[in-house]
Design brief:
The chain is 66% helix and 10% strand. The protein has 20 helices and ten strands. Bound molecules: adenosine-5'-triphosphate and magnesium ion (MG). The site of magnesium ion (MG) has 3 residues, from helix 11.
Length: 576
């Protein structure tokens, strides 16, 4: 056993050993009950009929009925346990994958498409589930075949040789056809993925498509993908049809040949009729497991690949967890000599040192790319400083428990993600401790209440994916309400009010002060009207802290801040 298979076995199958045991018991039970059937046939034909033993006939008849009945029951049980085992396994693996992916650092997600990860979580476990049954049925089928072949030879070794000779033919034919089918099935999967991609692109680009008159072009691309998928499907099913034809022929030709040969030997007087009947019925029971052995073997190959991919994800190192719980009492933020270099080599911060006083409103100012967002992301440990340290109330951020950090220090970014559920649910975010009254208080204070009330179903309105039915400013208002409801001790706003008009924004700052009077606010913004009211302003330039002070100080100083301020003033007057 290779290592991903072994790991898959110990991680996912061993914990469900009861299901596995139940399943293998049902399988072996139903197989074991197969063997008496042909032997009893032989007894009826060779002994009971010629000797007219009526009494025993009814006994054996009843026994046969009982056996067949029990086999039916076991077959039901087998199917039932199969479905339960497979679905449980898929569920276990999917949950494990999602749980692990959620612990991965943001850097992991920057290099991967959402669609790609979704496919990995959904399809790999589905393929790997085949392993569960596969491994069990290989054992069961091998035992069955061995015993079955033994009985064949015991009945008559010459006929047995012929019967067993058919099995390799069946094996080779099944294997070849299965391999071809698999290649073709990959073609279908590929085609399916392309159709999904083209459709997804067509549907999400509808607006652009209409505005630029690209409808025919886009339609053509989708139609082409659908055509290709259709051809792949037809081709695969054609081979499937040939496969089933060939296999049916081999499976049915076996008993015919045996009967033929058997009849010949009966006429010669070398065999009894009962033996030949027992033989032909037993051989049909053996074909199923032979084919099953081959298909499972192929499934196992696929399952191994899937298992390897599953563990590739599960082996991604998670964000560090554990450490002391962070206790924020005052909300002082101290950054000491922090330098930060992105993995691609961009130096985003250079030796930045600053202190934000507890409960104050601080602002980060600087041109595009000056490092504002980077600095905020370090405070919630989306990344770790390459050099230097960050302290919150004297506790080093690097050393505290991540969950406790992000519970108390909340970062709101410019890009708002809202879930496709109701406004109320979005605000509550699954936290039962947040009451409706609290929510109302916050939305009212922040000035979101009015527009929410005007939505078709008010707070129960379902907002579309990514909050599609709302304006940019409204989305930002909701995101702010959501953050405030989490009662952060330190609130970081990265351009979180950029889409609002100045009046709305002014009210927001007012309300934040009232709602979170002791919370330290750190705001990154371009618009200097946002910044003017801050208690303290830090100016970044090319990743360095170049100035700090109040608005008045900085204007008087005539440096970077003053230049940015003048520029904004100039564009504002130009617009008028
Ligand atoms: P803006 O005002 O446009 O939001 P900012 O001040 O927030 O800019 P940052 O986003 O902190 O600037 O970016 C600082 C520098 O780091 C930029 O040069 C940017 O190109 C780079 N950068 C940002 N994110 C990454 C990343 N994930 N990988 C590599 N470089 C990055
Ligand atoms: Mg930014």
């Amino acid at each position: 056993m290779s290592s991903p298979i072994r790991r898959f076995f110990t991680s996912f199958i061993l914990p469900r050993w009861k299901l596995g045991l139940g399943l293998i018991t049902a399988m072996l039970g139903s197989m074991a009950l197969t063997f008496p059937i042909p032997l009893l046939f032989r007894k009826i034909v060779d002994e009971l009929i010629p000797q007219g033993r009526f009494g025993e006939l009814s006994l054996i008849g009843t026994a046969l009925l009982l056996i067949v009945g029990t086999r039916g029951l076991l077959s039901y049980l087998k199917q039932y346990l199969t479905v339960i085992s497979e679905e449980t396994l898929v569920q276990d693996v999917e949950n494990a994958l999602l749980r692990h992916i959620m612990t991965l650092p943001p850097a992991f997600f920057q290099n991967r498409e959402v669609g790609y990860l979704m496919a990995r979580i959904r399809s790999d476990p589905a393929v790997a589930k085949g392993f569960f049954l596969g491994a069990l049925s290989i054992v069961a089928n091998a035992i069955f075949l061995a015993v079955g072949a033994g009985i064949l030879f015991w009945l008559d070794w010459r006929l047995a040789l012929v019967a067993v000779a058919i099995l390799p033919v069946l094996a080779v034919a099944s294997r070849w056809l299965n391999a071809r089918m698999q290649i073709l099935c990959q073609g279908i999967q590929e085609g399916d993925a392309i159709v999904s991609r083209e459709l997804g692109e067509a549907l999400s680009s509808v607006l652009t498509t209409k505005l630029l008159g690209l409808v025919r072009w886009v339609e053509g691309k989708v139609a082409e993908a659908i055509e290709r998928l259709k051809l792949a499907n037809i081709r695969t099913n054609a081979v499937g049809a040939i496969a089933s034809g060939v296999l049916t022929f081999i499976v049915e030709a076996g008993p015919v040949l045996l009967l033929w040969l058997g009849a010949y030997r009966i006429m010669q007087g070398g065999l009894s009729l009962g033996t030949v009947i027992a033989f032909t019925s037993l051989i049909t029971y053996l074909y199923g497991p032979t084919q099953a052995l081959i298909t499972t073997n192929l499934n196992l190959q696929q399952a191994r690949v899937a298992a390897r991919r599953i563990f590739e994800l599960l082996d991604e190192p998670p964000e560090p967890s554990g450490g002391r719980l962070l206790h924020v009492r005052y909300g002082e933020v101290r950054v000491e000599g922090v330098t930060f270099v992105y993995p691609n080599g961009t130096v985003a911060l250079r030796d930045v040192s600053l202190t934000v006083a507890p409960g104050s409103k601080a602002a980060l100012v600087g041109r595009t790319g000056s490092g504002k967002s980077t600095l905020l992301s370090l405070l919630v440990r989306l990344h770790e400083p390459s050099e230097g340290r960050i302290y919150i109330d004297g506790q080093e951020v690097r050393e505290v428990d991540l969950a406790s950090l992000r519970r108390q220090v909340v970062l709101v970014t410019q890009e708002v993600f809202l879930f496709s559920t109701t406004v109320l649910e979005n605000l509550r975010g699954g936290d039962p401790n947040i009451s409706d009254e609290e929510i109302l208080k916050v939305t009212y204070a922040l000035g979101a209440h009015k527009f929410i009330e005007e939505l078709p179903n008010g707070y129960d309105t379902v907002i579309g994916e990514r909050g599609g039915k709302l304006s940019g400013g409204q989305r930002q208002l909701l995101a702010l309400c959501r953050a405030v409801l989490r009662k952060p001790k330190i609130l970081l706003l990265d351009e979180a009010t950029s889409a609002m008009d100045s009046e709305t924004e002014r009210k927001v700052w007012q309300a934040l002060k009232e709602l979170l009077p002791y919370t330290t606010l750190i705001v990154a913004a371009h618009r200097l009207t946002t910044v003017k009211s801050a208690d303290w302003i830090f100016v970044l330039k090319g990743g360095r802290l170049v100035e700090e002070g109040t608005h008045r100080d900085l204007i008087a100083q005539g440096g970077e801040y003053q230049r940015i301020f003048q520029e904004q003033l100039a564009t504002a007057t130009e617009r008028r």
